[in-house]
Design brief:
mainly alpha
Length: 205
């Protein structure tokens, strides 16, 4: 998946350090100054809705889709259909990659920095969802002790995520830029999904 950047060795190191600093900055916030695009935000939201619907169909013992699709465009329905054709269980986590992987598959995004940016595109969406879900979760805690326990958990998770996703730096090579971005995306998305589920569970009580 890694490809040469065309940079001189020293420039690659500087580019790597800059990308890594951007990837680990912030407190469960977007990892750069850009906001998620409306199209990327909608793609993740649509995919999550479709995944929830697929989970309900499975729980109701209804047949799922057997359609297959090539991942050439960012299409949430096609994305989940392809996973279903591979007999992959469909749930909210199935939507991780719905923006980044089709983006990376585009011929024009073959460079290391372009592939890392594809991951950051989707990261911005999940980071927004995480922040929104966390605010809701904190607003619904039962007492101050419960609120503090939730804040402590989130602080600990941020420290874990940042420590985990800086590991590629120790491996060296330009692929570390991609791996670091993908790590941030996966970790942030899974945390957003988990807190969104906690909020959904509270609504069902």
């Amino acid at each position: 998946m890694a490809m040469g950047t065309g940079f001189a060795p020293g420039t690659r190191v500087l580019a790597f350090c800059a990308a890594l600093a951007m990837a680990t900055a912030g407190n469960a916030r977007a990892q750069d100054d850009q906001k998620a695009s409306a199209a990327d935000r909608a793609a993740v939201a649509d995919c999550v809705k479709l995944a929830v619907a697929a989970m309900k169909r499975r729980n109701d013992s209804q047949a799922g889709s057997d359609d297959t699709a090539r991942r050439q465009t960012i299409d949430p329905a096609a994305w989940l259909a392809e996973l279903a054709a591979k007999k992959t269980e469909i749930n909210r986590s199935s939507c991780i990659g719905v923006v980044s992987e089709p983006c990376q598959a585009a011929p024009e995004n073959g460079s290391t920095m372009s592939m890392a940016e594809c991951s950051r595109r989707e990261l911005r969406v999940w980071d927004e969802r995480l922040n929104a879900a966390y605010k809701t979760w904190i607003s619904k805690c039962s007492n101050e002790e419960n609120c503090e326990a939730r804040r402590k958990m989130e602080r600990a998770w941020i420290a874990y995520r940042d420590a985990l996703c800086i590991l590629p730096r120790t491996e060296g090579g330009t692929i570390a830029i991609i791996e670091g971005s993908e790590c941030m995306l996966g970790a942030t998305a899974r945390q957003a999904i988990w807190i969104e589920q906690q909020n959904a569970n509270m609504e069902d009580r």
